[in-house]
């Protein structure tokens, strides 16, 4: 099972990520944009990947992933069951969320290093 310490290590390994609570729950941001956070109970996390990636993941593995929408109209991200996702896949999702939220200049600098 993926734990907060794992998510923290994946997120904090990326440039300019800071840990900041999101509704009193652990959250991670880049350029003050949320990229991932835990949900109450620590069984699920929400990662702010792109909508197309979330749709594909939820369709392919609905027992692991679920699209998250606010008020049924605003796409939020992808809910991940932390007991069912692999460490490698969770790390990949955190990076995808970072790329979805980070400024283009930061992504370019990271890719060129």
General description of the model:
The protein has 113 residues and is α+β, with helices and mostly antiparallel strands. It has 4 helices and 6 strands; from the N terminus they run αββββαββαα. It starts with a helix and ends with a helix.
How far from one another are the termini? 31 Å
Strand content: 25-35%
Which structural category fits the helices and strands? alpha+beta
Number of strands: 6
Q: What is the subunit arrangement here? A: single chain
Can you describe this structure in just a few lines?
By secondary structure, the chain is α+β, with helices and mostly antiparallel strands. The protein is built from four helices and six strands, in the order αββββαββαα.
SSE layout:
Blueprint: H1 4-12, E1 17-19, E2 27-30, E3 33-38, E4 44-47, H2 51-60, E5 65-70, E6 74-81, H3 87-101, H4 104-112
Antiparallel strand pairs: 1-2, 2-3, 3-4, 4-6, 5-6
Helix pairs in contact: 1-3
